[in-house]
Write a structure and sequence with these properties.
two-stranded parallel ribbon; 9 helices; alpha/beta; six-stranded mixed beta sheet; about 280 residues; 8 strands; globular
Amino acid sequence: MTSHTTLSTQDSAGRMPVFFLSHGGGPWPYVDDMKQQYATTEREFKALPARLPARPKAVLVITGHWESDVFTVSTAERPPMEYDYSGFPSHTYRIQYPAPGSPQLAQRVRALLEGAGIETGEDARRGFDHGTFVPLGLMYPDADVPVVLLSMKSSYDPREHIRVGQALQPLRDEGVLIIGSGLTYHNMRGFGRDESTPVAEAFGNYLDSAIEQSDGAVRDRMLAEWESAPGARLAHPREDHLIPLMVVAGAAGADKGTAVFVDHVMKVPMASYAFGG
């Protein structure tokens, strides 16, 4: 990767914020009883485009449902669908979100990361999992904004993922919306249990404290040390749904974060955050 192709820039007043979105359970907008449970999330996801300074030229998603040995970028012009869930009604395995990909943005992402000394790969077959098509289907139901996916690295090193986000910061001035899609609580055995509520609240309070730090370096250190937080490993036995937050924090730079909203589903809080904008 030696290309230095860039997307056209825009002035700093139009700099995109970055989002971490708690995307919820499976294909919930397409299942009636689940949709009722996530009414707050549905409303807030639909409102997110109004928080942006302009319509994004493309969206880069770091989803908790894709990891690889190296940071890997999706390059498909017409990404397929990934139905990476089980036990849902048959129609949820026919959902389509026909947003285009953007090979140009994929190339730009690789150039930024490799310019920072970060090894990358590409995948021409990777498609949209529910961590991608659920929020974007509500934000942009016409599927007319190009979408590129960036995998996590399977080592889950939080500092390395923060560094990836730092390398991607220029995209914010190029009209690209960066979204980390995961959950602030993700323990499959804990959902719906009364004893999970205080665990999720304690861990969520730690995340809130980190996100709201006015010093980005302090925030990043707190996030890198997330395992020291109350209830950390009970909230995230495996941190696949937390690591996208690390990339988002890195891309936030000095911008302070705030909770956009907190939904309460299956007896746990699920927070979504915004930085900048």
